[in-house]
């Protein structure tokens, strides 16, 4: 501001210093234009489409006006058809004001083209029709016949239930980005002409360029949550079309508008949020189609959202896993992204009516095309990749396309690493054959892993034992699921492999990693050979009941020397306690409960033990308060302590509770007790180590019965935990031991734990683990 004041002061001094004009001489004033000569007629065209390339201006050739080869130059511009706006307002808006000195000169083709282009791009007119009037004795006149977009004085919304009226109005009367908000001050570069009369010593500033946009006061708009009447920018049909597209992008896939604009400017919009008329199922017989509709749980008459379709297909997969979504021979946009447009109809009395017209369904083209995908489109595709899978819309009817599921084959890598086998890579495979009539579904399971001869590992002075422990490990099984009898699995397994009963302590991958890194697998292994026959009933969504018969032969294994680990290779081999060898026969009874088990949760495992659940947990379990419990009773017979066969029994109870206390906080409690009578060594209880009394040594406390309680609290990425445990040895319980620790959480299962023991052996250095599997 100070620079401008100084500039005008200098100009005033310059004017005072000029010689007086001759009173008898009358010469026209000389105006000095402060702009360069080549820029005097150039103004930015802010009505351009924001997405239009800049080079398009050079593509459009100048307007040519001629009749029979004779060029015509309009002498003036006339505007016709204005109703709400005045002639002066429109001329000032496009830079054709009659007060502009340049308007007194003849129009050029370039200037006429500029005026027409600005008129068309203001968004104020539904039609801009230029005409030439060529009188015989008078100059040529360029007539522009204009049809203003409708003016809305009041808005009424009908039919709203879930949608907020203010949100719809904001989108309906949303102004483009080139319009500043009502609270923002316009910060635009103004191009003006500075004119200096050197003879008279006067200065004038003339804004030679038109305003960059129509004034907000002319337009229908929302300001501070209130509707302001005015002209609908772009027209009512375009505003309704934009609002409808936004509504469907928000998930209201069947939404539609009907509207009436009365001659007095009152706009009545009736909103149909999109109620489902019916659900049709194609690809299966009628009796199965009824089951599909029941699984989808979509009720006619309900407002249908995109998220409803996604959840419905997830429910279908969970309740009827033998069916899958079928490919639909439709264009991608016609599945759940049906296109529509608003059609305008006019009555004789001036009333305008608007209705929604759906675009016809397009068939998918069987041709190879090249396409360009930007980041926004990629994000939308990633977020809604499966939204329309197997689903199409026919008007307000939902059509679900399903087919019998093809056989599933899954093959997983087994990176086995133990102290008794070394590195033993292998594969595990599952082949599931589905019955389209839902009578019985067959599953074939198999796994093998081969110990490799690496690092010179061996059993000292026992080459035969080294050879035995490097035998091939094999597992195989077949089972059937019979839904009509609620049988989740009925089958048999055969095996000859290296096994452990410590899977409840530490996940497989965690044990393999720490065995390979630090020679600390926190598991004891043995050789198990035999078979298991089993039957499991899922008599309710959250309950399992099962029975197993086991016929196994157990064989002790010893740790190889030297340890095959990346670090601590000079440490002694990890202790692997001997087992009670011989043939054992036992029956296992099982009862399980999981409140958060989804209907489609898999049941059973190739590596099944009485200490672990048969519910297969995955990332799709709901994050909510949950209770899980496991109760197994094993009664068996096998070699006893004195050589003769003896009976034994073992009871395992493991209950855990998770309670969210906030958006990213929660409490987890666990109580596990296990024990029995006349137990073989491999089935005896022991506490100490990771997740079985953290902070203490691995299986530091051994006995026939154990009791372990755990409490954890986490908020955000940080957690605290405490473990308390005791074992019973010879009819007496040991002193309760306490372990304390903290966790850094990196996700649902990945965590870094540090733990300290609190007894007389406590040290300042904690035990630490980075774990990838949550075992309880």
From TrEMBL:
Keyword Membrane found: yes
Region of interest (Disordered), residue spans: 20-56
Membrane spanning stretches: none
Coiled-coil region: none
Organism field: Pyxidicoccus fallax
Protein name as annotated: POTRA domain-containing protein
Signal peptide: 1-17
Ranges of compositional bias, category Basic and acidic residues: 32-42
Composition skew (Acidic residues), residue ranges: 43-56
Segments forming domain POTRA: 72-149
């Amino acid at each position: 501001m100070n620079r401008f004041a100084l500039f005008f002061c200098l100009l005033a001094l310059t004017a005072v210093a000029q010689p007086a004009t001759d009173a008898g001489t009358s010469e026209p004033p000389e105006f000095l234009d402060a702009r360069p000569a080549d820029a005097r007629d150039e103004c930015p065209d802010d009505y351009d489409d924001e997405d239009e390339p800049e080079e398009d201006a050079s593509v459009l050739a100048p307007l040519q006006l001629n009749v029979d080869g004779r060029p015509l130059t309009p002498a003036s511009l006339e505007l016709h058809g204005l109703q709400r706006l005045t002639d002066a307002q429109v001329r000032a808006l496009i830079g054709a004001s009659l007060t502009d000195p340049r308007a007194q000169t003849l129009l050029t083709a370039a200037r006429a083209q500029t005026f027409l282009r600005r008129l068309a791009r203001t968004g104020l007119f539904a039609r801009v029709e230029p005409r030439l009037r060529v009188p015989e004795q008078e100059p040529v006149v360029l007539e522009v016949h204009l049809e203003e977009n409708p003016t809305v004085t009041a808005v009424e919304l009908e039919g709203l239930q879930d949608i907020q009226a203010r949100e719809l109005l904001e989108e309906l009367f949303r102004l483009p980005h080139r319009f500043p908000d009502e609270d923002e001050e316009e910060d635009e570069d103004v191009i003006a002409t500075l004119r200096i009369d050197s003879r008279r010593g006067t200065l004038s500033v003339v804004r030679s360029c038109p305003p960059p946009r129509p004034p907000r006061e002319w337009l229908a708009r929302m300001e501070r949550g209130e509707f302001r009447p005015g002209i609908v920018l772009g027209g009512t049909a375009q505003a309704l079309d934009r609002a409808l597209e936004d509504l469907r992008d928000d998930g209201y896939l069947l939404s539609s508008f009907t509207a009436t604009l009365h001659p007095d400017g009152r706009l009545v919009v009736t909103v149909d949020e999109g109620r489902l008329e019916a659900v049709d199922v194609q690809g299966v017989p009628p009796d199965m189609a009824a089951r599909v509709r029941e699984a989808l749980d979509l009720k006619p008459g309900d407002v249908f959202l995109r998220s409803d379709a996604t959840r419905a297909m997830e429910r279908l997969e969970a309740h009827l896993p033998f069916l899958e979504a079928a490919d639909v021979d439709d264009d991608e946009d016609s599945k759940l992204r049906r296109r529509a447009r608003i059609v305008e109809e006019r009555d004789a009395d001036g009333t305008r009516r608007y209705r929604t017209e759906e675009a016809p369904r397009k068939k998918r083209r069987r041709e190879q095309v090249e396409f360009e995908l930007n980041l926004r489109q990629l994000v939308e595709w990633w977020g809604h990749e499966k939204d329309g899978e197997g689903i199409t819309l026919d008007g307000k009817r939902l059509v679900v396309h399903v087919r019998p599921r093809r056989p599933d084959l899954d093959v997983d890598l087994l990176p086995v690493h133990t102290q008794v086998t070394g590195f033993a890579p292998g594969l595990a495979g599952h082949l599931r054959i589905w019955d389209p009539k839902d009578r019985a579904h067959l599953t074939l399971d198999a796994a093998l892993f081969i110990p490799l001869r690496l690092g010179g590992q061996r059993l000292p002075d026992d080459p035969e034992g080294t050879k035995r422990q490097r035998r091939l490990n094999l597992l195989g099984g077949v089972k059937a699921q019979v839904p009509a009898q609620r049988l989740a699995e009925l089958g048999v397994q055969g095996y000859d492999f290296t096994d452990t009963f410590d899977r409840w302590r530490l996940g497989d991958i965690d044990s393999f990693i720490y065995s390979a890194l630090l020679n600390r697998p926190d598991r004891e292994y043995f050789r198990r050979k035999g078979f298991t026959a089993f039957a499991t009933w899922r008599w309710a969504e959250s309950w399992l009941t099962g029975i197993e018969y086991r016929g196994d032969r157990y064989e002790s294994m010893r740790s190889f020397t030297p340890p095959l680990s990346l670090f601590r290779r000079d440490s002694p081999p990890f202790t692997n306690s001997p087992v009670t060898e011989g043939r054992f026969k036992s029956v296992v009874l099982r009862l399980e409960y999981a409140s958060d088990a989804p209907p489609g949760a898999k049941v059973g495992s190739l590596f099944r033990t009485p200490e672990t659940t048969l519910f297969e947990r995955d990332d799709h379990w709901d994050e909510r308060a949950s209770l899980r419990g496991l109760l197994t009773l094993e009664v068996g017979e096998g070699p006893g302590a004195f050589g003769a066969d003896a009976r034994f029994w073992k009871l395992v109870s493991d209950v855990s509770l998770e309670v969210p206390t906030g958006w990213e906080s929660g409490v987890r409690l666990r109580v596990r007790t296990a024990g029995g009578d006349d137990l073989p060594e491999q089935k005896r209880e022991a506490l100490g180590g990771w997740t079985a009394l953290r902070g203490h040594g691995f299986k530091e406390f051994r006995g026939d019965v154990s009791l372990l309680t755990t409490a954890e609290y986490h908020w955000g990425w940080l957690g605290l935990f405490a473990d308390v445990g005791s074992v019973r040895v010879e009819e007496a319980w040991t002193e309760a031991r306490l372990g304390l620790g903290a966790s850094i959480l990196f996700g649902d299962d990945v965590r870094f734990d540090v733990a300290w023991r609190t007894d007389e052996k406590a040290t300042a250095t904690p035990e630490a683990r980075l774990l990838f599997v949550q075992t309880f």
